[in-house]
Design brief:
By secondary structure, the protein is of the alpha/beta class. 34% of the residues lie in helices and 12% in strands. Helix 4 packs across helix 7. It is globular, with a radius of gyration of 22 Å. The site of one 2-acetamido-2-deoxy-beta-D-glucopyranose has 2 residues, from loops. One 2-acetamido-2-deoxy-beta-D-glucopyranose (NAG) is lined by residues 305-306.
């Protein structure tokens, strides 16, 4: 064989190999920077949201749960969530969606509870302060939209419900003293690396190391805490700084637990209601359940917490192709409490 032929043959053969290796050998994405106009835009939204007040205590109307959907791909489990809201009186909840403008969202059908629920959104990137901004935009939009919004549940595109709406609603409003369900941890081994991932000492003086916290990105906040978040300027100045060490910088897992543990530690349960499985995690991603793992037994397992006083309400992550199986067991398993 002549050399050009061998060359082109080996090139051809190397294509599948290249395809396999690409995710590993590509240089990390250029970190997304927050532009000044975007920052100012957010600031004015947060200012307006900061001045909102809750519905007066004398109102006879029922409090609502604001569901805040955050996605940078598609909303994979929309039909399952549609079932979750089906038959639920619309005076008990609101839905808000922040979809990265570059995400390929399939528009929900007009009959869906999700149609027309999109808020003004900006680009996001994983392990980047833009995810904090997106969550804050959702909180601000929900604060402004309805004074009856009393709990604010942040949900990702990979999340599924583990219980029915009435079960969730009853559990949240069971106690008169409302608390935020947000994980707040201080003993994790990776904490120091995370703390210095923007450079040494840059978090000072606002965030000394002994007040730096970690927790899961998905939470349910009270209205009072949603206000704390949109009013904050002090910690945001630090957490918006660009990451130097991209492997250990996950601002969205630190900003909310750090801020709330500083402002109102007793107002937080310190645990999340969103179950996630970190066993065998890959590249900072938790275990993703695939169709062969999905069963009624899994749903029961995922609901169970280590405490008899609460049950997990949502779980992540599920692969999009698990949807048909989940839909099949929705009425008999997931929404049966
Ligand atoms: C968590 O994920 C691991 C695989 O990484 C799996 O073996 C285990 O069964 C999962 N745990 C639960 C409770 O689903
Ligand atoms: C319950 O506690 C055990 C032991 O501390 C831990 O391994 C497990 O992950 C916990 N389960 C949940 C659902 O938090």
């Amino acid at each position: 064989m002549n050399t050009p032929l061998i060359l082109s043959l080996s090139l051809l053969l190397s294509f599948p190999l290249l395809f396999l290796c690409v995710p590993r050998i590509l240089p990390p994405k250029e970190p997304l920077q927050i532009s000044l106009p975007d920052e100012l835009d957010d600031l004015s939204l947060f200012r307006r949201a900061s001045t909102t007040t809750a519905a007066p205590a004398t109102t006879t109307k029922k409090p609502k749960i604001a569901f805040l959907f955050l996605t940078d791909t598609n909303l994979h489990f929309l039909p399952l969530w549609d079932l979750f809201f089906r038959n639920t009186p619309s005076n008990l909840y609101n839905i808000y969606i922040h979809a990265d403008p570059s995400s390929k969202i399939t528009p929900p059908p007009p009959t869906s509870v999700f149609s027309n629920r999109f808020i003004s959104s900006k680009k996001t990137q994983r392990a980047n302060p833009t995810l904090i901004s997106a969550a804050r935009r959702l909180l601000a939009a929900a604060l402004l939209d309805d004074p009856l919004n009393s709990y604010f549940a942040l949900i990702s595109q990979h999340c599924i419900p583990l219980h029915s709406f009435p079960f969730l609603y009853k559990s949240l409003f069971r106690k008169p003293a409302m608390q935020s369900f947000i994980e707040i941890l201080s003993e994790e081994p990776q904490l120091w690396d995370r703390y210095v991932s923007r450079g040494e000492n840059v978090m000072l003086p606002e965030v000394p190391f002994d007040r730096f916290r970690i927790g899961s990105q998905f939470f349910i906040l009270t209205r009072q805490h949603a206000l704390v978040v949109v009013r904050d300027r002090r910690l945001w100045r630090k957490f918006k700084l660009p990451c130097l060490n991209l492997d250990s910088c996950y601002p969205e897992e630190h900003y909310f637990p750090t801020l709330l543990s500083m402002e109102d530690p007793d107002g937080c349960t310190r645990y999340t209601l969103t179950r996630v499985n970190w066993t065998g995690s890959v590249g900072g991603h938790p275990h993703t359940y695939r169709p062969h793992e999905v069963s009624p037994r899994l749903i029961e397992e995922l609901r169970e917490s280590n405490s008899s006083s609460y049950s997990f309400m949502f779980a992540r992550k599920f692969s999009p192709d698990s949807l048909p199986l989940l839909m099949g067991m929705a009425k008999k398993v997931i929404f049966r409490d």
